[in-house]
Automatic annotation (TrEMBL):
It holds the Pfam family GatB_N. GO terms for biological process: glutaminyl-tRNAGln biosynthesis via transamidation; mitochondrial translation. This is Aspartyl/glutamyl-tRNA amido transferase. Residues 200-492 form the Aspartyl/Glutamyl-tRNA(Gln) amidotransferase subunit B/E catalytic domain. GO terms for cellular component: glutamyl-tRNA(Gln) amidotransferase complex; mitochondrion. The lineage of its organism: Eukaryota, Sar, Alveolata, Apicomplexa, Aconoidasida. Keywords: ATP-binding, Ligase, Nucleotide-binding, Protein biosynthesis, Transferase. InterPro entries: Asn/Gln-tRNA_amidoTrfase_suB/E, Asn/Gln-tRNA_Trfase_suB/E_cat, Gln_synth/guanido_kin_cat_dom. One of its GO terms (molecular function) is transferase activity.
Length: 673
């Protein structure tokens, strides 16, 4: 009797789940077929009469014209990059990162991706190393991946002839065979890399880059975009993951308004990458447990939350998950920043966090795993810093549905009552039945809350959104519509060889410069772009001099002003003026904010302000003339105050037109002879 009841319960559970997902999908289909309202302008046909002048949207940072890396502040100058006031407290932390891959294609169809690789900067003003470096890397990666795919299409001889309707789900299919079929089939539509202006235009056109699969319409089947798949393999490589030879996909089933088909194609059961690691500057190692290739969801239209923009639906994602580890706040930030830089500087994502290219979910709890919270969708290192700082392990975080001020759009949709007030809707009844099944005693542990899902609110801090359930609460089922693929080690190497050179570990970096203080190099190492900048400085200056002035002179001004770095050759030219005693270091420090914007000669800049010093030849002549009238007292050679007094008097006698440092060294040398 118990067996029959169990079988009936399972049948009821899956039947209700399937029926409920179908209803949600149907209702969302009807919803997008209705006229959409953009900024109070209703369009009968989606996007055909859409005016770019009305495209003011939070997704686009409330600007019609915008730049790829310029929202709020430059990625290099985010205030939380620099780990302020770390209290040293350890927090059990797990990090999930959702990375929109810089592929021209979506993940499981041939639609154009709004995260397409930006390889040319034609909008940014005065692009510096932070922008040009990643753009060049994206170009290199895109061209490399395209060459790999073109070579397979031209030269690979398939063992079997396949068609989409005759996949063998039991035996893996060579990735090369699948690629050749894909590019020779009617499924393929060509898309290329883009420049800044083109990407801006893509983001302004809502619901234009979609298909039946993106919109979750019944009867459509997914198929892997080979180009997007190669980008996901690249992410596994830069995080030092073991890359799976056998690749399969599954459906993660859950209910949410921006997921109308009721499931997400992902790799929960068999991730593409496993067992990666991130070495922190503190010596700790954060393990990357898995990297999954999956699809993004739709985006809620800002001014009409019951409508969706399906341009984002299906965009290729790499979900990066770290294993739980005790970290301080600065180490959490360093982990996030390291993941960001490895992916972006290797050309695998555009990296614009404020457009959704990077979204961080931070899981925090006590060392024993209790009092767990998950802060969702953080797109700023500054906000990550504030969220972690706001977390108090001693405070109990619990979600209470009655205290929630606003329900989700899906809840509003399902709780609609007709004008005659006839009670709950059909969808509401289905939801209640479904919920009662989930509360069955045998499922209680699976659906018991593990913690609280929260969001960051700048006015209220951490705010509870809903209960956090275990991964077992999702229905994860093998995706039979996508073939199981096999990629050889040789193919993986061909893919990963397209990536730029990797940044060495901190110890290797320090070993390259044995005469430079480790503390200085540790600061330089915090950013991939800083390492490259420093390497170029060392071609012009002594490594110790370059490190000292870069860390102590240039970086503090860049952090304080949010301005880009000046070109390394220019900074080296400025430091040489100090080393040649043509300007005082103190005057350079005072002028640094203005010098970041100065495009002319540094000698003209200081000369025009009467700050340029005499040449060393003239300086020696002035010193000798002064000392003829004021001879040195050799008995006071070890008296530091005496040296300071003589130096100050000598500099004042010339109208402060000679280098204080040079004079002091010169006087000290004469006294010691």
């Amino acid at each position: 009797m118990l067996i029959i009841f169990t079988q009936w319960s399972m049948f009821l559970f899956f039947s209700i789940n399937l029926f409920f997902s179908s209803i949600v999908c149907l209702d969302s289909k009807l919803l997008i077929k209705r006229p959409l309202t953009f900024m109070n302008h209703t369009n009968i046909n989606i996007c055909k009469n859409f005016s770019m002048e009305h495209s003011v949207d939070k997704h686009m940072n409330k600007e019609t014209k915008f730049q790829v890396f310029s929202e709020i502040m430059d990625d290099s100058n985010d205030e939380a990059f620099y780990y302020p006031d770390d209290d040293g407290k350890l927090i059990l932390t797990g990090i999930e990162v959702h990375v929109q891959l810089a592929s021209p294609f979506k993940a499981f169809c041939s639609c154009r991706s709004i995260a397409s690789p930006v390889t040319k900067l034609n909008v940014s003003k005065n692009p510096d190393v932070y922008k040009t470096g990643p753009a060049k890397s994206r170009k290199k990666v895109y061209d490399g991946f395209k060459k790999v795919l073109d070579d397979i299409v031209r030269n690979y001889k398939p063992v079997v002839s396949i068609s989409k309707t005759h996949y063998d789900t039991e035996a893996p299919l060579n990735v090369e065979e699948y690629i050749k079929w894909f590019y020779e089939s009617k499924e393929f539509t060509e898309h290329e890399d883009v420049d800044e202006k083109t990407l801006n235009d893509l983001l302004l056109n809502e619901n234009q880059y979609t298909c039946a699969g993106c919109r979750g319409e019944v009867g459509t089947l997914p198929y892997i975009s080979p180009m997007s798949f190669l980008y996901a393999v690249g992410v596994c490589k830069v995080l030092d993951c073991k890359i799976a030879n056998k690749v399969s996909f599954d459906r993660k089933c859950y209910e949410y308004f921006d997921l109308p088909k009721g499931y997400q194609v992902t790799q929960t059961l068999n991730p593409l990458g496993r067992d990666g690691h991130i070495d922190l500057s503190t010596g700790k190692v954060v393990r990357v447990s898995k990297v999954q290739f999956e699809e993004d969801t739709a985006r809620r239209v800002e001014n009409n939350p019951e409508n969706l923009d399906f341009n984002r639906s299906g965009v290729a994602l790499a979900e990066i998950v770290t294993a739980a580890c005790e970290l301080t706040r600065s180490e959490i930030l360093e982990t996030c920043r390291t993941i960001y830089e490895r992916v972006v500087f290797n050309g695998l994502s555009n990296g614009n966090r404020f457009r959704g290219n990077f979204r961080f979910d931070i899981n925090l709890s006590r060392p024993d795993g209790t009092n767990r919270i998950e802060v969702k969708n953080l797109n700023s290192f500054a906000v990550i810093n504030k969220s972690v700082k706001n977390y108090d392990p001693e405070k109990e975080y619990k979600y209470k549905s009655e205290e929630r001020e606003e329900s989700s759009a899906l809840s509003k949709l399902m709780s609609r009552q007709d004008a005659e007030g006839r009670g709950e809707s059909v969808l509401e009844k289905i939801k209640n039945i479904f919920t009662s099944v989930l509360k069955d005693v045998r499922n209680r542990d699976k659906y018991a809350p593990l913690g609280t899902t929260m969001k960051w609110d700048k006015e209220h801090g951490l705010r509870a959104m809903r209960h956090k359930l275990s991964s077992a609460s999702y229905g994860n089922y093998f995706e039979v519509n996508i073939p199981v693929l096999y990629q050889s080690d040789e193919l993986i190497k061909r893919i990963t060889d397209c990536l730029p050179e990797q940044l060495d570990s901190l110890d290797k970096f320090v070993a390259q410069y044995p005469g430079v203080k480790r503390e200085l190099l540790k600061e330089v190492y915090k950013h991939n772009s800083w390492v490259k900048y420093y390497e170029r400085l060392c071609s012009e200056l002594d490594p110790q001099v370059a490190a000292s002035h870069f860390v102590n002179l240039l970086l503090p001004v860049v952090k304080a002003t949010n301005k880009p770095l000046m070109p390394p050759q220019r900074f080296a030219e400025l430091i040489k003026l100090v080393l040649d005693h043509r300007v005082n270091l103190s005057d350079v420090e005072d002028a640094m904010p203005a010098l970041l914007d100065h495009g002319g000669s540094f000698e003209d800049y200081f000369g025009g302000r009467n700050l340029l010093l005499h040449s060393l030849k003239r300086t020696r002549e002035l010193i000798d003339d002064f000392l003829k009238e004021h001879p040195l007292d050799p008995k006071k050679s070890r008296n530091s105050d005496y040296v300071t007094k003589v130096t100050s008097e000598l500099v004042r006698s010339t109208g402060s037109k000679i280098s204080y440092q040079f004079v002091r060294e010169y006087v000290t040398k004469l006294l010691n002879e």
